[in-house]
Structures are given as structure tokens and as C-alpha cells.
């Protein structure tokens, strides 16, 4: 107990809240990495499906003169890799934010960082919009 008779301030709740925030960022990062992997693998599936259709078209080409040309699906692979990179970047950001938060709690001055939350939300919305447009283009005849 300090000499002036006051009890020390217990910062346990602030540290635990900072840790929960860190774990939330990690869960979000893992979800992004997993979704990016699925999107990238979907592109690989589409390319293999394209090869199967082209083989079948080549087998029946002796009876038919139509040549089927399917679009490339490498965009989904690029989008998936970008989502994985964003997830990995968020992990590093989460660690830095957690350490900065602990330092700020110790010093008694905590300032929340809102810009990264807004930036992350906007980037995810853009990724979602691009994915929707891509899927609509791919599904059109």
C-alpha cells in the first residue's frame, strides 16, 4: 500500500480487455486466411474443371466443329492470395496494437485507434464487392 494510504489502482480489467481485443483480431485474421485459402482453391478447381470440359470437347470435336473457349480463372487465385496476405498483415497489426495498448494502460493514457477499424471494414467491403462481381461474371453464360 502506498504511503499516502490510497489503494493502488487495479488495471486487471483493462489488461484483460486488451487481451480479448487481441484475440478477436487473431480470430478475424484466421477467418480471412481461411477464406482466402478457399477462394484461391476455388480458382484451382475452376481451372481443373475447365481442363475436363476442354478434354471432353476435344474428344467430341471429330463430330462437332464447335470449339469451346472458357475464361481464365486466375483472378480468384489472386484474390485469395490477397486475402491471405491481408490476414497475415492483420496478425502483425494485432500484435503491435496489443503491445501498444499494454504500454498505454501502464502509462495511464489509452487512445483507441479507430482508423484501422475503418480501413479494415472498407477493405473487406471492397474484397466482398469484387468477389460478387467476379462470381457474377463467371456465372454468366
Automatic annotation (TrEMBL):
<feature type="transmembrane region" description="Helical">
    <location>
        <begin position="116"/>
        <end position="137"/>
    </location>
</feature>
<keyword id="KW-1133">Transmembrane helix</keyword>
<keyword id="KW-0812">Transmembrane</keyword>
<keyword id="KW-1003">Cell membrane</keyword>
<dbReference type="Pfam" id="PF02656">
    <property type="entry name" value="DUF202"/>
</dbReference>
<feature type="transmembrane region" description="Helical">
    <location>
        <begin position="75"/>
        <end position="95"/>
    </location>
</feature>
<feature type="transmembrane region" description="Helical">
    <location>
        <begin position="21"/>
        <end position="44"/>
    </location>
</feature>
<dbReference type="InterPro" id="IPR003807">
    <property type="entry name" value="DUF202"/>
</dbReference>
<dbReference type="GO" id="GO:0005886">
    <property type="term" value="C:plasma membrane"/>
</dbReference>
<protein>
    <submittedName>
        <fullName>Putative membrane protein</fullName>
    </submittedName>
</protein>
<feature type="domain" description="DUF202">
    <location>
        <begin position="14"/>
        <end position="100"/>
    </location>
</feature>
<dbReference type="InterPro" id="IPR052053">
    <property type="entry name" value="IM_YidH-like"/>
</dbReference>
<keyword id="KW-0472">Membrane</keyword>
